[in-house]
Each structure stands twice: as C-alpha cells, then as structure tokens.
C-alpha cells in the first residue's frame, strides 16, 4: 500500500494548556518522525495525557500549533481524525456485539464498504475463530487485540497507543509487542506509544520523550539517553531506562 510520506508525522510547537490554576503544559515541543515508534513517558499529572488529547484533537491548546500527518490539527481536526487511529486505555469494543460486528461498525463510520479489511484484521489478530462470538466472552488479551484492530480498520497514517498492554498476561503482551513491531517495520506506520512499562518503551520505541511538570525534560533514543546519563554520572555500570527515567522525572512512572 502506498503511503504519503511526511518528514515528521507529528509536529507540535509551544503547546500550552491550563486547567484553572493548573499549568498542564508549559511550552511542549514535539517532533515524531514518520514511520517510527515514539515513546512518551511521564508520571501521573506530568502532562502526558494532556499532550495526547491535544494531538488526537480531543482537546485544544491555549497556545501553540499542531500538525499531524501533514494536517493542521487546530484548523482541520476532522482531517486529523481521518488520518489517525486511537487505542485508548478503556476498551472501545461493544461487549454485546460480536468481534466482527464491532469491526464492521467501525468500518462503516469511515465509509468503508469492502469487508475484506475486516476479515484481514480478524485473521491477523487471531480472532477469526471467535469473530461471531460476543466480545463479552473474550479473554482480556482478545479484547485488547480487537481494540487495536478497530484502531487499524481505516489504515491510519498515525496510530496512538495509550497504555496498550496494561492488564495483559506476559504472552498477550508479547503478542501485542510483535504486532507493534510489525506495523512499524513492515508497514512503516507511525506509532505514538504511552506506557508505564519501561521495558516496553525500551524495546519498542526508537525515540523517547520524558514529560514532567508540563515540559519535555529529556528526549532521544533509549541508547542515547542511557549513554548521556552514564557520562554525566561517570558510572562504570550502564544505566537502565528506569534509571534514566527516575533521574529526569524522579517520580514513579504512571499513566
């Protein structure tokens, strides 16, 4: 499938957001290169969720500019929504509908009449045999795979994954990691990942940003961030990503 290529799939400049007296974002700049997995880390209340809400057009910044997949998110939010897929922390599937019905409904919302995409995703995510069962009979891992399939139904240019493996057992988590890697490497899909599993970020993300108190306090590849800390501390032992995170944010990582 041919994709329109952008140098940066996400560009944000000077994002500011206040909720009353609370400064949620204080001048966030963000560049996400097209075709990469970008990890966004930060403790609870750091501004990570607010940033994602703005990038996905669920909230408007008080100041700043945003472009997603080449579309101005403030001037054309509908255009951005057509170009992105969002897999949130909460399940998006209707538990009383079947897996296939959920995908068909989402396809129709995007004006897709061809059912081949539905069948392709059911097969890819190992849900073909359960396609005609109600989602409420699915295991947690199956529901999460369906959530991701729903987010991919319209072949988005940018996929947002918000804590995608929370609550999954190790096998289901490994399966989802493999699919994220496949999307990035084979389809060159841009993926913005938020996670509180630092092992997950270290494995999947080619670039990372750490948000704290409404600002980006560190950015780079996982290896760059570790090397930078090792130089700064003059340690003989290479730091882990968890060490890097605690050095910059100093609080327990959270959603």
UniProtKB/TrEMBL annotation:
Keywords: Antibiotic resistance, ATP-binding, Cell membrane, Membrane, Nucleotide-binding, Translocase, Transport. InterPro entries: AAA+_ATPase, ABC_transporter-like_ATP-bd, ABC_transporter_ATP-binding, P-loop_NTPase. Residues 10-238 form the ABC transporter domain. The keyword Membrane applies. One of its GO terms (cellular component) is plasma membrane. The keyword Mitochondrion does not apply. One of its GO terms (molecular function) is ATP binding. It is found in: Cell membrane. It is a peripheral membrane protein. Its main location: membrane. GO terms for biological process: response to antibiotic. It comes from the Bacteria. SMART domains: AAA (SM00382). This is Daunorubicin resistance ABC transporter ATP-binding subunit. It comes from Solirubrobacter pauli. The lineage of its organism: Bacteria, Bacillati, Actinomycetota, Thermoleophilia, Solirubrobacterales.
């Amino acid at each position: 499938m041919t994709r329109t290529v952008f140098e940066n799939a996400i560009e944000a400049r000077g994002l500011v957001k206040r909720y009353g007296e609370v400064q949620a974002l204080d001048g966030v700049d963000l560049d996400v290169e097209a075709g990469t997995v970008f990890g966004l880390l930060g403790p609870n209340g750091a501004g990570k969720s607010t940033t994602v809400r703005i990038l996905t057009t669920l909230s408007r910044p008080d100041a700043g500019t945003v472009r997603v997949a080449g579309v101005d998110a403030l001037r054309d939010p509908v255009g951005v929504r057509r170009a992105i897929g969002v897999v949130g922390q909460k399940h998006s599937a209707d538990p009383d509908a079947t897996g296939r019905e959920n995908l068909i409904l989402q396809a129709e919302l995007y004006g897709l009449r061809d059912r081949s995409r539905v069948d392709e995703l059911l097969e890819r995510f190992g849900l073909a045999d359960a396609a005609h069962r109600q989602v409420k009979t699915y295991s947690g891992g199956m529901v999460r795979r369906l959530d991701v399939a729903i987010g991919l139904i319209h072949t988005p240019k940018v996929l947002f994954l918000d804590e995608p493996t929370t609550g999954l057992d190790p096998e289901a988590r490994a399966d989802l990691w493999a699919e994220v890697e496949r999307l990035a490497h084979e389809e060159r899909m841009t993926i913005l990942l938020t996670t509180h599993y630092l092992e997950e970020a270290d494995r999947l993300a080619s670039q990372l940003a750490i948000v704290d108190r409404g600002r980006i306090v560190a950015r780079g590849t996982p290896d760059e961030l570790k090397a930078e800390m090792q130089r700064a501390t003059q340690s003989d032992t290479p730091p882990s990503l968890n060490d890097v995170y605690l050095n910059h944010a100093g609080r327990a990582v959270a959603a």
